């Protein structure tokens, strides 16, 4: 019997005298019901399977019999309205009540109202049949026709995704100026090696935004999204360095536009400091404006464009190191701000052919178009307070400063309070959304402001402050929306309860997916209908998401794990997709997961065959790929625009000798494109000495080390800093306060979890899944051909190791790991049974092995049988982990005078190695060939017998310097191949 039924059964027997004495005295019923409800939380009366948890007390405001149809109406308070509502649950509640009422009332219809809304009206449209949908919550037609500002030219069609959808999204707080202390600071405290001002950035910029864009949406961020600290602006009013703006040939009048002006700014709007050029097309050929940047250093740069109001669509063609990429941009909307195109790799310097942006307008058109500025890279903060800027990349700064730099009007959007950047920051985000849309949805001070005419579909604010609960339980996910500010509808008549639908879908998807994947008790908190600035200011369906509690240690275990970040982000993307499909009446398909089991094999002298395997999503049946994109990179250049293929394989021909090629694969369906696979590298040497196979076994992503005792707990990065997906952008520094009872005093002394700040502006490399390139470069320099495959391809027999004289086992920082929660499945194991079987068969046939990695000894399973098995194959035994702190090592052979070091620092170029293995020869048949300089512990072992093995207790790719790394590979290959 459910808790709800027990409650009503008890209430009925105690209430029966009221019915007898007063007949239908509903006020007496209300009083007595509330007496019984005093100890009942809202989650106590929610019987479902979504782990709903809400401590708020339920109360009945009034009870009456409707005069129209004699319906018994129970009016509950706000707490009941915070739970997720589904049709089946309403039926269960009503039936429980009916069966417990006196006979003379049982036949009466029952109506339950919570916070002024009938309970059935709280069911999201997504969970209703088409006939029962609340049409007032759907997208209304007063807004501009659905269209994107930017449309990339793709070789495939996104027919069931988010094409023509525009989403505003931001990542919590940021670096801001606090006049009280005359300093720039974070809005939140540094806890458990991160903080709320930057940890949501990982979700929003690294995962959610790309997922939505891969589904066809345009995503708008009020905070800078590019972590590149360099910025180059090319503009008709002046450009950086040797950058050059080539004006179109036929020009008309000028409009107001961007100019850098004099930086840093205080209250200046740079989009009011300059001009943009208006021009038409020529009769016989394209009229082009060209932007040629002076790139300060090679790397990845986001490209943004700005323009005045035009009369149609133009093409922006980006020339980058991987080729050219075209975007169609509608200049009728999105004018007077920075519009994001994409992120590309550019080489250092000025290159008029291979590093530029062309603005191309339609030939022969009589319409007018606009050329203003193009920006490469995010850059540093340019807003000053009392003569000093924040001193950090704009990427870290609060939205208020980037909104100013992006052209929004001051007193309408970002200058809402006098000398209070803190309030301006959280208030400006919603007003910025309204400015993007424009009349009649404009900023609060002027709803009729024309704005940028971008038809924003929804807004999402991402935070991690879900509150604090007593005990050590998970706090879980809280949703906040608003329907009560000013009016209950948006300017076009759409009900603001669409925001509740959005909140319900996102919260439901997050909680369901987390509990499914992590086998944990992730809590679903309430959905608050409250007047939070970020919830009520946007004039579109909006949600303020509090994913978890960054103050609660059990929640922190999850937020620091890269897979959790991916899974939560995918849940949010799926929920937004479902919401907009319901709002706009289209069928949806979820984009696929990344492919795996990659392999490459030479099929002729200069051709290579690539193959892979799709990955099906166990919790999303629609996410099946039907096509694939294959992207290619040559040398140090970026990737090209890719090639669409029907099957999970392709032959690439005409490879040139002496070059390292990289390939990555994505899966495609009608819902969009997946994240990329690991990168497979191949190369053909001049006068090749033979062929080597690189087996990439380093696919681990993981959170840092977590430890707990009764009195102490925290994040022990010194032991294991984890492995970020791509790059780590959210670490402030090591935790120093591990005492559970330490209390918060202020943000400078936050108690338990308090962490240093020495790393918070450092963006450093994690697992980029691209380390076969470093191995392959050394192999090619030594005169050998090479191909790459994933370790799964070896384990599943897709690759026959016996075809190669040498196998290079790349294990980086791979080691057995487990997800937070109750899932006991091991991930990232090095020595699986299938891999050991493959290596046993390979070495019996005389195959040679190079194995490198920080945990190649540590990860050997501790059972005696497996220890003996691994030792017999690889001829080394494990002595210690964390063998040394510095990365210096040297050769022990008189024939090889070699000294070098591997990376232990935090930087973009190489991931830091914090736990190298000390490994020793198995017996006298093998020998130590490298030792660590710090303590002379054995770092590398050579075996020469019926086959050969070189094992290094540190990752080869972490060795500093291309020359040193290539020399090391050359010497190793001499030992193994000569």
Name some characteristics of this structure.
Aminopeptidase; CBD-like_Golvesin-Xly; about 20% helix; nine-stranded mixed β-sheet; six-stranded antiparallel β-sheet; about 1000 residues; alpha+beta; 50 strands; Jelly Rolls
Describe the protein.
- Residues 594-687 form the Fibronectin type-III domain.
- This is Fibronectin type III domain-containing protein.
- It comes from Draconibacterium aestuarii.
- The chain has 978 residues and is α+β, with helices and mostly antiparallel strands.
- The chain folds into 5 domains: 3-123, no CATH class; 169-224 and 412-584, 3-Layer(aba) Sandwich (Aminopeptidase), CATH 3.40.630; 232-377, Sandwich (Jelly Rolls); 589-684, Immunoglobulin-like (Sandwich); 686-699 and 769-977, Class I glutamine amidotransferase (GATase) domain (Rossmann fold, 3-Layer(aba) Sandwich), CATH 3.40.50.
- It has 17 helices and 50 strands.
- Strands 41-36-42-43-50-49-48-45-46 form a 9-stranded mixed beta sheet.
- Helix 1 packs antiparallel against helix 2, helix 1 packs across helix 3 and helix 13 crosses helix 17 (962-977).
- The longest helix has 23 residues, at 562-584.
- The radius of gyration is 31 Å and the shape is globular.
């Amino acid at each position: 019997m459910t808790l709800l039924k027990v409650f009503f059964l008890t209430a009925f027997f105690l209430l029966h005298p009221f019915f007898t004495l007063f007949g239908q005295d509903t006020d007496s019923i209300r009083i007595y019901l509330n007496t019984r409800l005093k100890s009942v939380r809202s989650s106590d009366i929610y019987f479902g399977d979504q782990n709903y948890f809400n401590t708020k007390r339920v109360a009945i405001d009034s009870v009456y019999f409707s005069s129209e149809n004699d319906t018994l109406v129970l009016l509950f308070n706000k707490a009941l309205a915070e739970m997720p509502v589904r049709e089946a649950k309403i039926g269960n509640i009503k039936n429980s009540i009916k069966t417990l009422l006196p006979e003379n009332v049982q036949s009466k219809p029952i109506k339950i109202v919570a916070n002024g809304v009938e309970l059935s009206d709280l069911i999201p449209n997504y969970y209703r049949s088409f006939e029962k949908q609340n049409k007032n919550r759907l997208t209304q037609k007063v807004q501009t026709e659905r269209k994107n500002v930017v449309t990339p030219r793709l070789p495939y069609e996104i027919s069931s995704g988010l094409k023509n959808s525009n989403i505003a999204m931001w990542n919590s707080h940021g670096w801001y100026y606090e006049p009280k202390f005359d300093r720039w600071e974070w809005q939140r405290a540094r806890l458990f090696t991160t903080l709320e001002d930057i940890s949501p950035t990982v979700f929003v910029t690294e995962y959610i935004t790309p997922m939505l864009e891969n589904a066809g949406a345009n995503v708008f961020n009020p905070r800078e999204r590019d972590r590149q600290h360099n910025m180059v602006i090319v503009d008709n009013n002046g450009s950086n360095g040797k950058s050059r703006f080539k004006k179109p040939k036929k020009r008309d009048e000028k409009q107001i536009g961007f100019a850098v002006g004099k930086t840093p700014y205080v209250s200046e709007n740079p989009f009011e400091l300059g001009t943009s050029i208006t021009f038409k097309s020529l009769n016989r050929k394209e009229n082009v404006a060209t932007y040629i940047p002076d790139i300060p250093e090679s790397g990845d740069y986001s490209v943004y464009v700005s323009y005045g109001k035009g009369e149609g669509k133009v093409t922006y063609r980006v020339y980058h190191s991987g080729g050219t990429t075209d975007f169609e941009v509608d200049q009728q909307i999105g004018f007077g701000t920075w519009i994001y195109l994409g992120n590309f790799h550019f080489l250092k310097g000025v290159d008029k052919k291979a590093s530029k942006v062309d603005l191309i307008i339609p030939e022969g058109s009589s319409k007018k178009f606009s050329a203003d500025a193009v920006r490469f890279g995010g850059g540093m903060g340019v807003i000053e307070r009392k003569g000093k800027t924040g001193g950090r990349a704009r990427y870290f700064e609060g939205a208020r400063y980037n909104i100013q730099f992006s052209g929004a009007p001051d007193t309408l959007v970002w200058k809402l309070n006098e000398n209070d950047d803190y309030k301006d920051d959280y208030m400006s985000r919603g007003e910025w959304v309204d400015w993007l849309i424009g009349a009649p949805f404009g900023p609060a001070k002027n709803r009729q402001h024309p704005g940028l005419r971008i038809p924003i579909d929804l807004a999402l604010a991402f935070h991690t402050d879900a509150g604090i609960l007593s005990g050590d339980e998970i706090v879980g996910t809280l949703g906040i929306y608003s329907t009560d500010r000013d009016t209950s509808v948006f300017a076009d008549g759409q009900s603001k309860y669409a925001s509740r639908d959005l909140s319900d879908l996102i919260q439901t998807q997050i909680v369901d997916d987390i509990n499914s994947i992590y086998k944990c008790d992730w809590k679903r908190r309430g959905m608050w209908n409250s007047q939070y600035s970020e919830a009520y200011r946007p004039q579109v369906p909006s949600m303020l998401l509090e994913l978890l509690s960054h103050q609660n240690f059990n929640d922190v275990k999850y937020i620091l794990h890269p897979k959790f970040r991916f899974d939560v982000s995918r849940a949010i993307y799926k929920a937004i997709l479902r919401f907009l499909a319901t709002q706009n009446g289209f069928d949806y398909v979820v984009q696929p997961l990344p492919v795996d089991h990659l392999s490459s094999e030479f099929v002729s002298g200069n051709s290579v065959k690539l193959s892979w395997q799709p990955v099906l999503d166990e919790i999303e049946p629609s996410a099946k790929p039907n096509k694939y994109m294959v992207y290619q990179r040559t040398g140090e250049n970026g990737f090209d625009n890719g090639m669409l293929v029907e099957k999970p394989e392709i032959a690439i021909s005409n490879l040139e000798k002496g070059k390292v090629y990289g390939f990555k694969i994505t899966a495609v369906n009608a819902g969009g494109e997946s994240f990329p696979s690991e990168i497979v590298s191949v190369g053909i040497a001049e006068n090749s000495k033979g062929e080597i196979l690189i087996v990439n076994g380093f696919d681990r992503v993981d959170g840092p080390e977590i430890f707990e005792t009764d009195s102490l707990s925290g994040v022990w990065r010194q032991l294991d800093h984890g492995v970020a997906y791509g790059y780590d952008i959210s670490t402030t520094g090591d935790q120093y306060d591990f005492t559970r009872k330490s209390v918060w005093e202020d943000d400078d002394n936050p108690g338990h979890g308090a962490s240093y700040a020495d790393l918070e502006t450092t963006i450093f490399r994690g697992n980029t899944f691209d380390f076969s390139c470093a191995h392959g470069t050394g192999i090619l320099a030594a005169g050998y051909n090479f191909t790459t495959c994933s370790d799964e391809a070896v384990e599943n027999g897709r690759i026959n190791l016996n075809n190669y004289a040498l196998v290079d086992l790349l294990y980086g920082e791979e080691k057995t790991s487990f997800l937070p929660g109750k899932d006991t499945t091991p991930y990232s194991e090095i020595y699986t049974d299938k891999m050991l079987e493959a290596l046993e068969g390979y070495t019996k046939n005389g195959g040679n092995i190079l194995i490198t990695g920080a945990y190649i000894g540590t990860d050997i399973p501790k059972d005696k049988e497996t220890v003996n098995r691994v030792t017999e194959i690889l001829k080394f035994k494990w002595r210690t982990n964390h063998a040394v702190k510095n990365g210096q090592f040297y050769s022990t052979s008189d024939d090889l005078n070699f000294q070098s070091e591997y990376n232990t620092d935090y930087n973009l170029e190489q991931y830091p190695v914090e736990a190298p293995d000390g490994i020793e020869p198995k017996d006298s048949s093998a020998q130590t060939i490298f030792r660590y300089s710090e303590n002379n512990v054995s770092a590398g072992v050579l075996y020469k017998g019926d086959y050969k093995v070189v094992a290094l207790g540190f990752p080869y790719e972490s060795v500093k310097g291309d020359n040193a790394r290539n020399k090391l590979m050359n010497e190793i290959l001499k030992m193994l191949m000569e």
